[in-house]
Amino acid sequence: MNMSSFNLKTIELKSFIPAKDFQTSLAFYTALGFEILWQEEQLCLFALGQTKFFLQNLYTKEWAENTMLHLHVENADAWHSHIKELNLHHTFTFTLTDPEDRAWKMRDFVLIDPSGVLWRIAHNI
Questions:
Q1: Domain boundaries, the chain
Q2: 96: exposed, middle or buried (C-beta count within 10 Å: 0-12, 13-18, 19+)?
Q3: What is the pLDDT of residues 91-119, one digit of tens each?
Q4: What is the CA radius of gyration of the chain?
Q5: Given this structure, which CATH class describes domain 14-124?
Q6: I need a labelling partner for 95 at 20 to 30 A (CA). Which of 38, 84, 113, 116 fits?
């Protein structure tokens, strides 16, 4: 069957992020600057610019600690500075590494959220 006869155009891809403590994760992502577009008791849709993801009130340690997201931004250093200036370590338990130039021609840093989800925040170099 010829695949060109189907409309396979994609619109977007959104990930479901687990939350160990839903209220803590809501507060964490809001503090980072994400906007809540929609929320119910067990699920929330966050957005920042063209980036969207679902935060789910569901947690499995193995799932959370094996989830990795790549957020491609215009300036990873600006993002890193923004996160550091928020002083979130006083409120949340999370990991933030320093930005590094990578062999794959990106500059990135790692942010691990309070549930253990790893984000690589990067820009092209």
A1: 14-124
A2: middle
A3: 999 999 999 999 999 999 999 999 999 99
A4: 16
A5: alpha beta
A6: 38
Is residue 121 within 8 A of residue 71, CB to CB? The reply is yes
User: Given the DSSP bridges, would you call strands 35-39 and 43-48 parallel, antiparallel or unpaired?
Assistant: antiparallel
Q: E strands within the chain?
A: 15-18, 35-39, 43-48, 51-56, 68-72, 95-96, 100-101, 106-112, 118-124
Q: Which residue has the tokens 């250093």?
A: 77
Query: In whole angstroms, what is the distance from residue 89 CA to residue 16 CA?
Result: 24
Tokens coding 66: 């094996």
Q: Are 32 and 17 in contact (CB under 8 A)?
A: no
Q: Is the pTM of this model over 0.90?
A: yes
Between β-strands 118-124 and 68-72, what pairing exists: parallel, antiparallel or unpaired?
parallel
**Alpha carbons 29 and 18: distance in angstroms, whole number:** 13
